[in-house]
Amino acid sequence: MEAKVNQPDMKQHKVNQHKVNQPDTTLHKVNQHRLNMPEIDKPGVGESEIKGIEALSYMEKKHLLAQLSRDKKKDPKSGPWEITDIRRGGWETIKDYLIQPIEIDINDSGKDETVRVWFDITDLERELEAGAQK
Question: 48 in helix, strand or coil?
Fold first, then answer.
């Protein structure tokens, strides 16, 4: 006759070993993801911080605010700003896109210097602006 030795249930043992040796990183991954996400609801720069912004179109404001927000993250001393010059170039074709280059000169009071911001507005963005104004 075989004697039965009390052995631990192997399935239960493996489950417990998994829980002990491998920490649950789900919460860590979620928190890490939140740290790497841009704060979309909280723009770094508001229109009230830029004197003369009313001279810009909606899309131009959007591009300028995005650029100044990125700059302010890199250097918190930046701002407030004052627009001193706006240059809108002629329409150019680049590959399959029609773009209008925009240059804006801005005095940065926080850093006591003048900066130039360049960006392109596409014809599609201008069409969306025109449609939104109607």
Answer: helix
Q: Which two tokens stand for residue 105?
A: 């000169």
**Domains in the chain: how many in total?**
1
Residue 60 located in a structural domain: yes
Distance CA 11, CA 26 (A): 23
Contacts of 9 (CB under 8 A, 6+ apart): none
pTM (two decimals):
0.64
Residue 62 located in a structural domain? yes
Q: What residues contact residue 102 under an 8 Å CB cut-off, 6+ apart?
A: 60, 63, 86, 87, 88, 89, 118, 119, 120, 121
Q: Show pLDDT as tens, one digit a residue, over the chain (134 residues).
A: 555 555 554 444 444 444 444 444 444 444 444 444 444 445 589 999 999 999 999 999 999 999 999 989 998 888 899 999 999 999 999 888 899 999 999 999 988 999 999 999 999 999 988 887 76
Provide the residue range defining the domain that includes 126: 53-133
Q: Is 122 exposed, middle or buried (0-12, 13-18, 19+ CB in 10 A)?
A: middle
Residue found under tokens 């239960």: 12
